[in-house]
Amino acid sequence: xxxxxxTGLSHKKTGIDLREKLSFSRQDYPCVLRHFELDPAVSExxxxxxxxxxxxxxxxxxxxxxxxxxxxxxLAEYHKVSPAAFAGHxxxxxxxxAIAYLLKVASGLDxxxxxxxxxxxxxxxxxxxxxxxxxxxxxxxxxxxxxFSAAKRIHTTTGISQAKISVPSVxxxxxxxxxxxxADKTLLQIGSGETGELTMRHFAERGLSRMLLTNRxxxxxxxxxxxxxxxxxxxxxxxxxxxxxxxxxTALASDAHVIAGEMMEAAMHSRRNRPLxxxxxxxxxxxxxxxxxxxxxxxxxxxxxxxxxxxxxEQRQAELSSCLEIVDEETQAFLAQIEEWKAEPxxxxxxxxxxxxxxxxWRRIESRLGKLDARxxxxxxxxxxxxxxxxxxxPTTALREExxxxxxxxxxxxxxxxxxxxxxxxx
Amino acid sequence: MNIxxxxxxxxxxALYLASWLQSMLRKPEDRSGVWGVELTPDxxxxxxxxxxxxxxxxxxxxxxxxxxxxxxxxIIFLCWCIALVYYFVSFSFTVPWLAxxxxxxxxxxxxxxxxxxxxxxxAHDVEKGWRIKLHVVSLLLAYSFFLVSFISGxxxxxxxxxxxxxxxxxxxxxxxxxxxxxxxxxxxGFPIMTFGLFVGLLLAQANPKLGSWMLEKKxxxxxxxxxxxxxxxxxxxxSHYRGRRxxxxxxxxxxxxxxxxIGTQWHYFK
Lengths: 427, 270
Known about the structure:
The complex is a heterodimer of chains A (427) and B (270).
Chain A: E1 4-10, H1 16-22, H2 29-38, E2 42-49, E3 53-60, H3 68-79, E4 91-94, H4 95-107, H5 118-132, H6 138-157, H7 167-178, E5 186-190, H8 194-205, E6 210-215, H9 218-228, E7 231-234, E8 247-250, H10 261-270, E9 276-280, E10 297-301, H11 302-341, H12 344-366, H13 374-405, H14 410-419
Parallel strand pairs in A: 5-6, 5-8, 6-7, 8-9, 9-10
Antiparallel strand pairs in A: 1-3, 1-4, 2-3
Chain B: H1 3-25, E1 33-34, E2 37-38, H2 41-63, H3 71-92, H4 98-117, H5 130-164, H6 175-206, H7 217-237, H8 244-261
Antiparallel strand pairs in B: 1-2
Helix pairs in contact in B: 1-2, 1-4, 2-3, 3-4, 3-5, 5-6, 5-8, 6-7, 7-8
């Protein structure tokens, strides 16, 4: 009997202040795992800590469940926080609910951004760390492998992770409406704040070849430009570089329009009317809206980008029910897999017993086959093995099915009585 | 028509139809195929084009004439040119979307050709000689390039409209690609058309029976569209004009070309 449990805190019930206090760094993982290795109530454990969750996945020793209080006590002691400060925020799942919960976490269905895939990488990393420490076993290995394959199935067969839900990624999609490839294009990024940096990362990932970056504080522009191999341009000089850019992104706070209509007209003239896309992520708007009326200039403001983000989020939400169906299917399949394991000792005994008989009989007859050709002897031995394998095929399949259905193990007991020799009674 | 040639032609038509259906129904992530070969619309169309080419050879060999003599033959030849141009464009640019628009036109033209086969008129005297064949073949090839240019032009206008309204239009190909396809098909099609018209001009002048051929509606429409295409190319290549207005001009030019074809015979004057 296995009893998995998951205890921890997540963004759903806990604020960032508390999550920060109770989180672990990657370097802390071995120490945490060591604690649970030494705990006699725990046989297998994995620890996961991300910015949105801190969770301990445990398998209780001797088929018993690891209680939530045990994990809460550990977290309190480790982080030197009173258990009363966070006990009310802790979630605890066990058995089937714990399996389903892990599958949801792996697939990003429990994430703050529905369907995100970063959590899968974090979970794989946490599992790899636990495997290195040998704090996982047959059960946890199977459970996490099932979680990874379920996540892959969900991401590939449903649209949960397809629709883009960040403004910079949607902005890059809009630019892709104009250009078939970014390889020979130039980006001019105005503003090097968080949004600006994210946008540059998205374009860099899509193979954009050249980036120009300008910011009111030139030093900051230089620092950010260095991260992306971009060229930093002094803020007062950027109008002279407008004509070089095929994509212009503005992400800065400004009361007046940073890009005026006349400025854009001059730039378009210099670039011989080659098309250009302007992505205005600033509030208030940094680009004069009249620019949109110019031929071959395509302007997208924050409202149009956010409308798409909202639409995509709704699209992801609509996929949730089909994802949960997959989670349910995979949970049941995993439970059936575990049930199947119960027949394994008997099947192994059966195989060993039959193999012992075959080996004994083969040895008895082998001496009489001395004159036979070596190849023929090998064929004969191979044939005896095939006979035992074919003989065992139907019973092992039936035993596994019986175990999977959880049908009371009558067949298992019967098989034991029929095929395995009874222990010899002492005289 | 030779029975074998007829069967080959029916096979080609069926494959064009299959390619059209496949381009409409197949999902991009679908990798299913037959005998390990993925059945993309491109591949089916390739098979159709191979059969189509075979038909043209068999038909020309058995009928001992260029397969553009009768209207239905000219239409079938036009389909072949369109498929050929499609492959040329596919080879030069990444245009998986084009099959969706080209194949229904080919299928529709095949239907027109099959109907035309039922009542084959007598070939006109003026059609004899290699110059008329050169005239017809070069014009049909040029029209095929202009058809692809027209398709990319119409898609450009739809896409541009959506982009100006700040709406996502990811289902249509990128605007830059549509513009490139539109321009390069014109760049290739225009000299071929000019050559075809020049051969036609020589033919008309050499034939006293034609009389005042310059006032024929067909000639007027073709000349107007030729002039418009010339203006578009001048604007695009010399003055670096681009965008909505020149694309509209290419679309209108093609409409004039259609006017010159609709209601007139293929390659002889009424």
